[in-house]
Amino acid sequence: MRRHMPLFAAVVLVAALTGPSAARATGSVLLPDLRQAPVGCGGGHRGDPARCSDWDVCVVADASAPNGDCGGSGEAVRLRFTTSADNVGDGPLLIYGSRPDTREPTMSARQAFQSSVDGRIPGSYAEAQNPIPARMYYEPAPSHTHWHLLDFEHFQLRTPNGQVVVADRKTGFCLGDRYRVRDHLANRPENLGGPAGELAEYLRQNRCGHHAPEALEVVEGISVGYGDDYLHTVDYQWLDLTRVPSGVYDVLNVVNGDRSLVEKSYDNNASSVAISLQWPGGATEPPERITSPPVVKLLRSCPGKDRCARQG
User: Fold this and answer.
1) Residue 240 and residue 294: Cα distance in Å, rounded?
2) Residue in 189, 181, 44 with CA at minimum distance from that of residue 114
3) Which terms are listed as keywords in the entry (predicted)?
């Protein structure tokens, strides 16, 4: 990498094992707890989630553009929304990525855990206890040019009975301490001293190997009491509504959906909102040529739940 990694991020080996069973989480480690924030709310929001306005309906001229300019007519209609994940656990979420050389296009990943005995944070990839199936890849798009962790979050448009209508295209995330959550958390690092404080200082500035496609190692994560958010204006931060009929739907956002990351609890990993979608003129089906966007209304927000729309 073009910047020196801190001592806790020295990478020495690639693991071949996969799956969360490789980690034997006991009382000797401090586990993170990822909480999916309300859909469409900015990072750290603690007001009424039904009043969150970090979402919109965007008509783009070029359906292949990851983040095209919004206009009155075009090829595609997108529901864009901000997504945020908080760490409200006892320990940091810490993920090491590594590859043996530049001939390997992606990095394998491991999750590390802070010791509850002496506060120690693993000093190498080899010491990280949980190999995970997710990988890291370098995103060369001009708005990114850094390494992304795959499959950290996903979102879907679903019918009230749970049928998936549209799935996301955004799969990569660069994790860091982007905002402070308002919860009172005993293990939040409040100063730069100690291993957790040093890690937090690194994660506040983390850019995931920015402009370093040649990197062989990357560290990502979220400290206790902080979160990572992606604004609704970011590439692929949307669901495609172009061929979706008028009706009522759930917009579901899930963090760590496959539970490959070991957490204190998985009960707060999903949030959803119920929306109504109506194409112009009372049409049931979308038009062949889009000249006006559908009207999308937020019916209700359901933080912590994977369903929000009422059936029937």
Assistant:
1) 12
2) 189
3) Signal
